[in-house]
DNA sequence: CTAGGGTTAG
């Protein structure tokens, strides 16, 4: 009865019934009520009921655990399973699949092999559910052997187990193994295909991804979005937009994931015309404008040159988060409106939103574009002392740029010599641009020497070196800098995603 | 009454 109301989403009716039947309450009615609160994101209420229960069973615990997972509280999960042990409740398949999934990408993932041991003791390793979550766990730990072994232990493998195997191999960078697993999958579904396509994309094999995508007999909104986003992440913005148009022609309905990616494509190729059309599509499709989608719109308008439209959408976001603020501050910085950028930063602080590294990159670059030296220095110092954010190489680059543009080449030089990083091509690029701007041959040589010492180089650096001797426009260098900054970011991501030693398994 | 696989923003 109570569960009927919970299923229909009528939490109040469920609670009413629950409160009335004090005498005939059983564990199931308590659990149903807790389920209702968890489903509707009322964790405190769920927790309260759980604490009030006269007798708790494993389902009560599992429900709380899934609630804690939903609000991303792995620490709470950890304490809850300890508590479970003290009460003497034996965890079941549900418990383990929830707990393992909740520990993914957290510091608690080191416990996953230990949970695996417990699972073996309780003879739960043959479960498909436990098995596939364990597979995600070993993937998270970058343990290929574990991944394979857990898969083998699953008694009756279903398509989800196979998909977890494909995904695991792809996450580990083993595209050939993933492909083999895909071929061996008995009943491939659209998820199997999409996992493979997305895996090729994250492993930078765009052509493989595209040819596979074209062979798909069935595509859903996720498959389309994966392909669109794949092109966006690889800077093939026009391709992304073309795929989106095919998607619309096919009659598939885009969702907020799709639109976020498509808007990023518009931003990437600075197409205000297309961006506006996508915006009207968002409205036409009746997409709920959540924070993420709205922020994508803000960013698109800012990058396509319509900063006022960006601002007006930004203002319309009821619950602006850190990314939204970063987006508008970055937008103002890009448009050279340093004062407005700083004003938004102050407003962000007033709203109690904590800044992060990106915030300060944007703030500092606003200062550098606006020639606000003291303000830039102030924020550069404040980011560590007041906000506890360590300055990264990107922030130093902004400061070098700031001093350089203002003609304070000695200050820039001093900063480079004193910074806790080896200067990279981007730093030298910023410095060189300044040397070019102020025709400083002497310091240009200092930079040239620095560049020479780097293992990696960049053609843009040479073009700037040559620029010191005259010619070319100033705007060219700004563009080159941006490009290098972006590439630095891409390289960092790539290094995190797949270590080289895993590459050798891949013959293609 | 509780659980596993594919997609979003700076």
From TrEMBL:
Membrane-crossing segments per the record: 94-111
Keyword Secreted applies: no
Keywords: Membrane, Repeat, Transmembrane, Transmembrane helix
GO biological process: RNA modification
Repeat positions for PPR: 26-60, 189-219, 220-254, 321-355
UniProt keyword Transmembrane helix present: yes
Annotated GO MF terms: RNA binding
Annotated PROSITE patterns: PPR
Lineage top rank: taxon: Eukaryota
Pfam families: E_motif (PF20431), PPR (PF01535), PPR_2 (PF13041)
InterPro entries attached to this UniProt entry: E_motif, PPR_At4g14850-like_plant, PPR_rpt, TPR-like_helical_dom_sf
PANTHER family: PENTATRICOPEPTIDE REPEAT-CONTAINING PROTEIN
Protein name as it appears in the record: Pentacotripeptide-repeat region of PRORP domain-containing protein
